[in-house]
Amino acid sequence: MEISVVGVLEFSSIAIGIKSLDEMVKTAPIKIIEAKTICPGKYLIIFGGDVASVEFSFNKGIEIGKEYIIDTLFLPQIHQDVPPAIGNIIKIKDWDSIGIIETLSVVSAIEAADISAKVGGVKIIEVRTAIGFGGKSYIKILGELDSVQAAMEAGIEKAKSKNLFFAQSLIPRPHPEVKPFFM
What we know:
6 helices, alpha+beta, Alpha-Beta Plaits, 2 domains, four-stranded antiparallel β-sheet, globular
């Protein structure tokens, strides 16, 4: 299934999150990218598919979740590099610089990854989603130094606009000894 739209629902209740997940997949044919408990005691659903299916399931999740919804994201035309990087590390052979943006929510990390990728000239290699990080998330961006800087500026600005930016690092030409720990 091709993913042209991503939806994200973050719940304050694990029980309500799981019930919403079941209802959402019964509502329309969507692909679940991640569905899990996250810190501190929340439930996260990240899903994708075509516009209509994601929209129907997104609305069903909000209907079920009601007052238990913490944050949401409905992102049409998501950059193609972002969905495979959610919860995964994309292996890249050749790279020059790495940028890391740390956010205070999953939604802000996905938004930062999308806008960073759309700036161009970079590869999103990881979107880590709030497990074991006290609710924080981060993204890793690879590419040439100038491209990584520009992508990071755009991603950071997006997270700051929602007051959900936490920290960032830019590492030009990482030492070969540490590269395996980034990948």
